[in-house]
Predict the 3D structure of the following.
Amino acid sequence: MADFLSNGVSALLAFQRAIDTTSHNIANVGTDGYSRQRAELVTRPPDIKGNGYVGSGVQVATTRRMYDDLLAQQVRISTSSFNSLDAYATQMDRINNLFGNTTTGLSVSMQKFSNALQDVANSPASLSARQVLLSEAQGLAERLKSYDSQLDGYGTQIESQITSETSEISTLAQGIADLNQKIALAGAHGQPPNDLLDQRDRLLDQLSGHIDVSTVRQDDGQLNVFVGTGQPLVMGGEAAKVLTIQDRYDATRQNIALQTGSGSPVEITANVTGGTLGGLLDFRTQILDPTRNALGRISIALASAVNTQHRAGIDLAGNLGGDLFNIGGVEVLKSSANTGSGALTVTRSDVSALTEADYRLEKTATGWSLIREDTGAAITMTGAGTSANPFIADGLSIVVSGTAATGDRFEIRPTRTGASGISVAITDPNRIAAAAAIRADATAANTGTGVISAGTVVDATNPALRNAVTIEFLTANTYSINGGPALAYSPGAPITANGWSVEITGAPAAGDTFTVSDNVGGTGDNRNALALANALGKGLLDGSTTSVNDAASRLVGRVGVAARQAQASRDAQSVVKQESIDSRESVSGVNLDEEAANLIKYQQAYQAAAQMIRVASDLFDSLLAATRR
Amino acid sequence: MRVSTAGIHQSALAGIMERNAELVKLQNQIATGKRIRTPADDPTGAVRATELDRLLSESSQYARNSDVATNRLSLEEQTLGDVTSLLQRVRDLTVQANNATVDATGRQSIATEIKARLDELMSLANHKDANGEYLFAGFKTLTQPFGNAGPSVQYFGDQGTRSVQVGPSQTVVDGHSGFEVFMDVPQGNGTFYTRAGAPNTGTGIIDTGSVTNPTAWVSDTYTITFTSATTYEVRNAANTLVSSGAYTSGGSITFNGAQVTITGAPAANDTFQVGPSGSEDMFTTLNKLVATLNRPGVPASDSAQFSTEMGATLTQLDSALDHVSSVRSSVGARLSVLQSTADGRADNDLELKQSLSQLRDLDYADAVTKLNVQLVGLQAAQSSYAQLSQLSLFNFL
């Protein structure tokens, strides 16, 4: 009878605990990272009687946290991956919007510049057309600069985001380490500290949103957390710090380092993957730098194409045209770890061979080695690095001065500052060289039918370019230049001298003369303006296969493809992440209907157990009554 | 599968949010009428659209260029028309002056008019366009191309001609240099000129001649000398005898593929020259004409000289008229090229605009249908969520 009562009491106590647990679940239905709990009911050890084992009621073995480690890890992996892609795509969207505007886009500015050149060609002596051209040239330079400064601004924001990411990672790591200690203490009682574990898991989830993590559980319930390729972030109750350190070459750039205890920080940038931090780092190297370089390369090609042609012409005052655009130089960054006194002077020797990559030049024991940073490939250089015989590679000319120590490194960015350094070199519209430097005339007394072409400038640097030259026909089939030796005449074949080229067609008679002379006063000549207008459409980059126009539309296409890919990857990963969360929630999440059912179940069991007490009381009463006299 | 309560709400909400995002995108497309708003919407389409935009912008620039060239060529055509009627008038006057009934006074008054025409020709040659630039100065558009240098007129411009781009690889020259129009008029019949020797005493008159056999023609300066009143010989510049024969008035003298006719009675030792054509500018022609008309012309030999000169002048005026007419026809040809490229450009623009529209513009019917589908979807998601959220076992406790 005593067993009977104690069974009832044990049931009352057990179901009370079960209802407690249910109420805890209901109370935490809105708590992030909460795993539902369940009171694990087990039978109490039975009493042995002569006639067999008699059950002795129920007890709560433990309050179990419904949790699947594998599913939780999947959530972390997918969160880390999603956040990485999300950060990447968010940044990518900004660039996409930057380049996407069709009314203010790069190719619109270029077209306006070309059209202004055509207008100058229509009316080369018109100062207003020339003024418009200067304005459009300025507009184009400003457009390129503004793209670059926007990109630069994104870069600065990313640097500060990286810094705040690292401090958040450090804070989370410290939180996990603290919880590790508490969990180890609490777990010493033999029962799992469910809510502490939930809290730690929640911090881990958050951490995985910032950086990819992997975990290893210790026997005492503490969790070791690793980042990157196994760099320890949390070891039991000790957390390392994630810091930013200045890049060795570029002081404006932050790298990621891990500092354990009071040790010196170890750089782990290359090992960081996943999470918002990984996404930002990927964006920085995969999109931001190459896009700025591509923009810079377009600017350099534009300036080079225009300047080369502009130098071949003469302005309204009859002077040879100078540069129409100024362009920035090659950016050379010296490693802060360099011990030698070596310095580099790098210039662009061949625009058509320029790539969009950055390079690293390192002094080795045997000489210098040039590494292309995006591919990691070694680039073969010709030359000796002296000013008389510079290193030549990928359109660059590199001169080394001073004494570099072995292991000294330099970063070379051939195109990075191209867009920020572009500006219009002339302010006086008269200085626009719309006319060609030379003109060709037939002499009035000529009796033959020979016709001379207007002539083109082949080499504007030839000092004798604008000297007057007479081409005299000695016979119908031979001519001499300035009284020089007789040359065979073939109609339409180019005749070159002093950096120009002309063609004579028809049948000149003996004694006919043609002159090539300085085009001074040629205010109505538009040949150079026409050539300038077509310069942007001519193959120049990539070994003279890509025009400036092509490069500009290619850049837009490339940004579009990258943005689309980033969006698609993010959307796909978002589904994966949601599925992994759903899987985890299917185990750990609270369902109110289920709790309601449990509540009813436990309530009825409790009521039944209470009835049992009453029955025991009744029985006891009837026994008392039976024995009362 | 178990579903957590938070999960039910979360997924319902996510569904509604997704519909919202889709709706905003569609609404944006409908509001702007553009299918592609950023390159990411359709990267290849965006690049192609940029390219088409560029081609269209280029095309409108070519149209502008074409207008400029048309204006300038029209102005030139108009000026050349004036030059033609001027030369025609001078020719009429020359024919009139060549009539034996006109005496020295009459010739002088004609000379006065021709002198006035010469000034007019000068002003036509120095014509300026709307920008104040000289039409016939070659590249030196700010330099007055024609001016008097001593007795003759000199050309101060150059022979440059400006090309205007009217298509991706098509240019049209928008004018002619003054050299080409006024200076480079072929002398004589275009192959050779004829001239009577100044001290001739006979009354022989040489015509302008013609080339009968172009392959036999040797470009050289020939002298026809009358060894007597009835015999002549033709020698070249090296004084080699080329041909000789008996002279009859009006009979043709043929040598090296050339044929000239001398009429009248040349005296012995009279000479006539036949030389290769260079060019003679219109001003010189007119100046010479004025000088010829102003000569008193009493002796018979002078009359012969006069006739030869008048004949040569008429030929030269015809040559000038031909020359101007050929320049005018080249202007006409250029104008017609401009017209036909404009037509081609219009067709091409239409095609480009259609491609661009297909590429970038929104298909409204499609977009509005999608919008309706999304709206229905959103309403369904919202109402199902509202119903679902009311369900709870706790309501029955």
Q: What stands out?
A: Chain A has a mean pLDDT of 91.
